[in-house]
Amino acid sequence: xxxxxxxxxxxxxxxxxxxxxxxxxxxxxxxxxxxxxxxxxxxxxxxxxxxxxxxxxxxxxxxxxxxxxxxxxxxxxxxxxxxxxxxxxxxxxxxxxxxxxxxxxxxxxxxxxxxxxxxxxxxxxxxxxxxxxxxxxxxxxxxxxxxxxxxxxxxxxxxxxxxxxxxxxxxxxxxxxxxxxxxxxxxxxxxxxxxxxxxxxxxxxxxxxxxxxxxxxxxxxxxxxxxxxxxxxxxxxxxxxxxxxxxxxxxxxxxxxxxxxxxxxxxxxxxxxxxxxxxxxxxxxxxxxxxxxxxxxxxxxxxxxxxxxxxxxxxxxxxxxxxxxxxxxxxxx
Length: 333
Ligand code: NAI
Ligand code: MG
Prior knowledge:
Elements: E1 2-7, H1 13-27, E2 31-35, H2 40-46, H3 52-61, E3 63-66, H4 80-87, E4 92-98, E5 111-117, E6 127-129, E7 137-139, H5 145-161, E8 166-171, H6 179-191, E9 198-203, H7 204-213, E10 220-223, H8 225-238, E11 248-250, E12 255-258, H9 276-288, H10 292-308, H11 322-331
């Protein structure tokens, strides 16, 4: 049986992880989860944010499914999410955004994928105060040719493999001439190798407006770390919210699958969380593991429920609990 590391995470993490493991078990998925905890709870118990055994498990299994982890704002804590992406060089953060049946939104045909650079940009954590009074601070944004090249290449390869003829590169090179300029130049260079694919260059602020006005126009979006983070939540909002948006962090030989949303402390422990974002993430993980049959079986059950629109969680206007929706999916498998 294929082993996968499961990190339940903080906040709603344990509830939505249980939903996924219950559904996998009911569907007879040939995956055995090795549970490893990390985050706030582990820190409070052991003084360690990430236990050594978690690294060992990921390095052995090569594939992990991860719930959200709370990152307290303030000194002393670096995000575990950012840390894991960096440690395993998981440079592609891939976030598919698709209109779903039965979910009421302003748009009908959104089908795009965001490729977010995941290891550099403004997320390298190099920040400091510039004076003793701590009234002035700076953060460093690092863009490298290598880092830009591999994420942009991944986006073009995805477009090619899926017969898509446009890649949209999002930047702010008009202001950040050197850093964003390097990213943009790398994109122009790579584009030369893909004659069948049009490259569209859009400045980040305009992109936000375009995505709200005409999201159906986009297929593949590739951008730097911070812009990609922000656009992912924006795009999740276009198709029904964070409760539906899956994601994956992919490197050369390790992949960590996680939804776009965070630990949702406002609804944690209340049996209210929508497990579908993590479930769609798990379905993408099954496809990555070439378990296509089980992936499709679970996906079909979910789509059937969404179409009917009777059993939905509160974020989608319904009144079902996490457990009730999970049971309904199992019934429909
Ligand atoms: P969030 O994504 O946790 O929540 C934003 C809003 O969306 C909240 O109102 C929440 O209730 C709702 N929401 C999110 N997921 C939902 C779901 N599955 N079902 C129903 N409603 C859902 O973002 P927030 O509040 O900014 O961050 C909370 C914590 O999560 C922070 O500590 C942050 O650092 C962390 N975080 C962790 C991430 C990760 O582990 N990859 C990603 C984003 C944030
Ligand atoms: Mg985010």
